[in-house]
Design goal:
By secondary structure, the protein is mostly helical. The protein is built from 18 helices and 13 strands. The chain has a 3-stranded mixed β-sheet, with helices on both faces. The chain has a 3-stranded antiparallel β-sheet with strand order 12-8-13.
Length: 417
């Protein structure tokens, strides 16, 4: 059995990517998606962070319909009240946030958000949320900065319509947190820790190295308290949330939890799930392993990646007579961190985060002019500050990776003249 976590979640999150950098990379991803489906349109930070905008873009990426820019603008116009988090206040919100309400609702339940139309009742809930945010920042300021950076919106559900939902979030509508009408500030703070941890995980999972495609076929985890069975990615998300709750509980000290609080059981559940994840980590990628092992003070094992031999073979197969170029329909977005995300409007769309080497190579090809390994090699030696043999191996491996994703293609002779 693993021991209790020995490192803070916010420190390990920052080691993978500081919150601001992670948000910036996530915005680059959504802007790339818009480039693919609505060329010429541009997302402001507000639009790129908006949960309904992200839901609509995710729906199109999944092959469900087209991107409706008017729908995005309509969603962004929903009024909110900022009390440390943006709380939905617009009476029109019930229709516009229908997707997350429907996704998290128990069978036969139709949750409704409290809004300005509910008068003093909404005002009281808003005050409670404000106090909950203040309490969160007072109890665990670094954790609050870390997790709240990923919460773009909060909706308070009318208690009589919530169907027992204490708090909820969905990776299909990332960025929005739903909470039942709260009775105490600590209930709000706990919900923000719990769902904020999920929102953090959603962002990590889409822009970092977290779960291998083989995870879909991996064993399910069955928990001991409800005997629910979770697929691996959901299991990791649950472990991450319980770990954050356990650390928050330690900081909260003597604050009495509510009757539905998970704080008293968070440590035991995090340990149970963590034990299982360590036994199934072969489908976890490098950042997920770093987080899992970092929280328990144990070294992460090696992560199996595509071999350089395979990539060199792909490079040879792609080069034709030695020249290659970006595929004409490739689109590129580069985050302020320097990382590049590229995509093609295929069905389903192909979107790939590039490592530093691949980001640099794609940058050299961005003008669509054909290049060869020989042309790139002197620049690569200078950029990577390494000798020719090592630079050549890195170039061939990188070009092979790009070829495996169909992001580059051989250039015809006429295009090089």
């Amino acid at each position: 059995m693993v021991g209790s976590p020995v490192a803070s979640t916010h420190a390990l999150h920052a080691a993978i990517a500081p919150a601001a950098a992670l948000v910036d990379e996530r915005r680059a991803l959504y802007r790339l998606a818009v480039d693919l489906f609505a060329p010429g349109a541009e997302l402001s930070d507000n639009l790129a962070d908006h949960p309904i905008v992200r839901y609509e873009i995710g729906r199109v990426l999944a092959g469900q319909g087209h991107l409706d820019l008017e729908r995005l603008a309509e969603a962004a116009a929903v009024r909110v009240c900022d009390v440390g988090v943006a709380v939905v206040s617009d009476p029109a919100a019930a229709r516009l946030v229908e997707a997350p309400l429907r996704i998290v609702a128990p069978p036969g339940v139709s949750p409704e958000p409290l809004t300005e139309a509910d008068g003093a009742r909404f005002g009281n809930a808003l005050g409670m949320v404000s106090e909950g945010v203040r309490l969160f920042r007072e109890i665990a300021p670094e954790m609050a900065d870390d997790l709240l950076a990923h919460v773009s919106m909060l909706a308070v559900l009318k208690r009589e319509t919530s169907g027992g939902v204490v708090s909820a979030s969905s990776r299909y509508v990332p960025g929005i947190v739903l909470i039942d009408e709260p009775s105490t500030p600590l209930e709000v703070a706990e919900a923000l820790v719990h769902e904020g941890a999920h929102e953090k995980f959603f962002d990590l999972a889409i822009v970092k190295e977290f779960v291998d495609a083989r995870a879909e076929d991996a064993d399910c985890f069955e928990n001991s308290w409800s005997h629910a069975r979770w697929p691996l990615e959901q299991t990791f998300a649950a472990w991450h949330a319980y770990t954050c709750l356990a650390q928050f509980s330690t900081s909260a000290g003597t604050e009495p939890p509510g009757p539905f609080s998970l704080l008293p059981v968070a440590r035991a559940r995090a340990t149970e799930i963590g034990d299982w994840l360590l036994e199934h980590e072969e489908v976890l990628l490098s950042d997920a392993r770093q987080l899992l092992h970092g929280l328990f003070g144990s070294p992460a094992g090696d992560v199996i990646r595509r071999s350089e031999v395979d990539c060199a073979t792909l490079c040879d197969e792609t080069l034709d007579d030695g020249h290659f170029r970006l595929h004409p329909d490739v689109r590129i977005r580069r985050a302020s961190t320097g990382r590049a995300v590229v995509g093609r409007a295929t069905q389903p769309p192909g979107i790939f985060w590039l490592d530093p080497d691949a980001s640099w190579v794609v940058g050299q090809l961005n003008d669509k002019t054909p290049r060869s390994v020989e042309l790139l090699l002197p620049q690569a030696c200078e950029e990577w500050q390494t000798i020719s043999d090592l630079a050549l191996r890195r170039l061939r491996t990188t070009i092979g990776s790009l070829a495996s994703w169909s992001l580059i293609e051989p250039a015809h002779t006429s295009e090089k003249e």
